[in-house]
Amino acid sequence: DIHLTQSPSSLSASVGDRVTIACRASQGMRYEFAWYQHKSGKAPKRLIYDASTLESGVPSRFSGSGSGTEFTLTISSLQPEDFATYYCLQYNSYPRTFGQGTKVEMK
Amino acid sequence: EVQLVESGGGLVQPGGSLRLSCVASRFDFNNYWMDWVRQAPGKGLEWVANIRPDGNEKYYVDSVKGRFTISRDNSKNSLYLQMNSLRAEDTAVYYCSARLDVLGQGTTVTVAS
User: Fold this and answer.
1) Which residue of B has its CA nearest to A48?
2) Are the beta carbons of B101 and A87 separated by less than 8 Å?
3) Secondary structure string (H, E, C) spanning A33-79
4) Which of the residues B6, B34, B47 would you substitute to probe the A interface, choosing the one with the greatest number of A C-beta atoms within 10 Å?
5) DSSP-based three-state secondary structure for B75
6) Quick check: B105 and A99 CB within 8 A?
7) Dist. CA A22–CA A10, nearest whole Å
8) Tens of pLDDT along B38-92?
9) Cα(A28)–Cα(B62) distance, rounded to whole angstroms?
10) Confidence band, pLDDT 50/70/90 cuts, at residue A20
11) CB-based contact (8 Å) between B101 and chain A?
């Protein structure tokens, strides 16, 4: 199984801050990687797929990068609606696996 | 916009069974891999299983193999998850997903005596 380690597990930030979340995979992959935003009581929402492709309708302040074993989600200027938990996912092999999540809280 | 509506959750005793359903609309269900994802209380997301469009290929996370069965009925645009021999650790919100692109609102399963 491919294990994904997200860092940090939580962070405190202010509106307007640049936020970076990292995900390290136990095995390398090309691009089969995605990022999700999850707010309590709502359905998780995919933001990025194929490592760097922005989902339709997702604001351009979100971006994804990386390949191999290191992947990154960046929010260029944090907005009030961005406070949530973020998860990475690999779909390179079975079983699909998620990172443990990064909770983004208001400072 | 893709719509996924799950149902069938509830309270069940350890060792019991439940069948979850998901009705899909507004996309070509017949040509999509479909997945189940869950989130236990206070925990992160966990992928559970998926199924090929024709239903002839299925994959499961190890913790549910032999107990859960994923299936689909393309004539009804529906996805199912038959859950047997349920354990306390299966307690979670279960989300239906179209190819992990979009997830539904979820249905809650509680396994407790």
Assistant:
1) B101
2) no
3) EEEEEECCCCCCEEEEECCCEECCCCCCCEEEEEEEEEEEEEECCCC
4) B47
5) helix
6) no
7) 12
8) 999 999 999 999 999 999 999 999 999 999 999 999 999 999 999 999 999 999 9
9) 21
10) very high
11) yes
Nearest CA in chain B to A100: B44
pLDDT digits (tens, 9 = 90+) for A37-73: 999 999 999 999 999 999 999 999 999 999 999 999 9
Residue of chain A whose Cα is closest to the Cα of B103: A43
Record the tokens describing residue B103, joined without a space: 């997830």
Q: How far apart are CA A78 and CA A18, in angstroms?
A: 6
Residues in B 39-58 with any Cβ partner in A closer than 8 A: 44-47, 50
CA B14/CA B112 separation, integer angstroms: 6
